[in-house]
Amino acid sequence: MSVSQCVTVLKSLVLVATMLIDHPKSGPLSSSLWKVVDLFSGCGGMSAGFHAHKEYFEIVGAVDREIAKPGRGKHKASSTQCNSTYHRNIGVMPKNADLMTLNPQTYRKELGLNKGELDVLIACPPCTGFSQKNSKNHLEDDPRNQLVGRVAYFVEEFLPEFLVMENVKELLRGKHNHHFLRLVDQLEFLNYSIYANIHEFSNFGLPQRRERALVIARRDHGFIVDNPLKPIKNKMTVWDTISCLPEIDAGEVHPSDPMHLSPGMTSIVQLRIKSIPKDGGSWGDIMNDPDISESEKHRLLIPSMFRAKRGSFPDVYGRLKWHSVAATITRECGHVGNGRYAHPEQDRLLTIREMSLLQGFPSSYFFEGPLSARYNQIGDAVPPFISSQIAQYIIQLRLTPPIPKTFFQASSQVVNQLSLHQDIGMPFCV
Predict the structure, then answer these.
(1) pTM for the predicted model, two decimal places
(2) Model pLDDT for residues 62-74, shown as the tens digit of each residue
(3) Collapsing DSSP states into helix, strand and coil, what is residue 96?
(4) CA–CA dist 209, 407 (Å, integer)
(5) What is the distance in angstroms between the CA of the first residue and the CA of the last residue of the chain?
(6) What domains sit in the chain, N to C, each tagged with a CATH number?
(7) Spacing of C-alpha 30 from chain mean position
(8) How far is residue 219 CA from its own chain's centroid?
(9) Could you tell me which residues come within 8 angstroms of residue 354 by beta carbon, excluding any fewer than 6 positions away?
(10) pLDDT digits over 173-199, tens only?
(11) Which residue would you say has higher pLDDT here, 50 or 22?
(12) Packed helices 178-189 and 146-158: angle between N→C axes, nearest 10 degrees
């Protein structure tokens, strides 16, 4: 950072402090709750964070096509069945529609909103086409990526004060980030200031390793000054989050919580999991154990494991480690063979409740649909623990005076990295 940038930032902070002293916070009138619409609403992960602040926000609309993986025309798309989950927990039934073809003006009028009346537009398009974990994305630009640019049409029609977006980090830095850059151009044309950065959510209280891009844009106001999330000193762990839940077996449903259930497993998968060391072990431990005979290894492991290079796919058939954060939860989390999703001690896949707690959902959240669809919903979701912080940040921004752009034009990149936050915690098993 140059000396001139430092001076600019210091002046800006003095201005912010002065504004906060001279303009005390006050809450909104109960008769004028801030209206929120959620595009690509899924099971409600992003909406849940705003719904938790009912004294400020009102969810007035949501849209989701309930399509898990369109398959690029090669196979029939599966259904997420997420709209029922959203309705049960948020209280609004999402419109089942394709946002690539849904007319923004028609939908705005359907909701009974005037232009500029919406306060927050949430839009978290599918991440599959951007993720570097999908090898096809290194060669092809998935047609679904166009949904990022499509968001601009809804912003132009609704003219919300805020736009909130979450996606994989490649949205900002990947091969196909031109979709995001075009969105930025359109937002700036509409006079939006934009915060865009990559965050490791475990640094902000989520008990899971989850690196994601976060975008917040605001219309007709000054720059968004600092990081919207609140860092913590000590990361939350798997132990902190799920150790207090009662033990159950694979295929069992706990009588006091219908979400505390885990699917049954075949006898060979059950034996494989039992053979994996507790508290962080994986299939590699079986392969490298000199006390296990070759014939027993061939009985316990699948053929592809013998062809794999040493150290590859370390999380497959892996157990979580108690005193670490969980591995990244994806939509494929519904099988122990898809990642490190086995319980640290019990010989089974994590339950719906355990998986959702590690994804930052409240302990009362209820997931609808078949068991596989419920796991898909959790893996696809924005963690509500994170979205709640975003909602709190927007509350803070709306209740304090805007920061003039002129103070930050020389160093907007530096300003985006400032943080003035306090510690937070998660009230689960700690």
Answers:
(1) 0.84
(2) 999 998 754 444 5
(3) coil
(4) 35
(5) 40
(6) 26-233+383-399 (3.40.50.150), 246-350 (3.90.120.10)
(7) 29
(8) 24
(9) 242, 245, 260, 343
(10) 856 678 888 999 999 999 999 999 999
(11) 50
(12) 10
